[in-house]
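Attaching the record inline, Q. Sequence:
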Amino acid sequence: MRIPRLIFAAAALVTFAAACDNGLDIEPIIPECARPAPPASTTKGDTVVYANGLRYLDTQAGVGDTALLCIVTNAGDGNDTIYPAVAIHYEVFLENGTKVESSVDAGQPISFELGQGLVIQGLDQGILGMRTGGRRRLIIPPALAYGAEGRRNDKGEFIIPPNSTLIIDVRLINFDGF
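Structure, as predicted:
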């Protein structure tokens, strides 16, 4: 629904302009939204490869909002980062094809704020730039997943062995942005 957002944005600008014309001391808030991504990406076929080893392939283009982080510059107050919430369905596989976890099988998507470190780094970074409704396959190196520690269940058994590369299929269900 882009029209209501455009109307809201236009109304906000008119209100801001009117307040400034009336002599009120209002500092502008300037959003700088970006698709923060690991540096130095290249493309090999349809796969995007980042210098940190994260790779992804979009398997279905989304049609909704794009998952971004925003840095808001408040005059005099410094910068604040807006951490938008996302809801995703995911399936996690080891390189040998073993499925280790699935929100799809559980029937419940997960929600979290992007950029807060609430999920593994490769998933946090890999969702950026996706559009609502889109599907993406992430290939996440150990350093951006569970590293040398791996991940254990409640019994102490490895669910994800140490130094495992993970393959995560993600569907962006919702992006609750700005």
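Residues 1-39 have pLDDT under 50 and may be disordered. Helices lie at 2-21, 103-106, 121-127.

More tomorrow.
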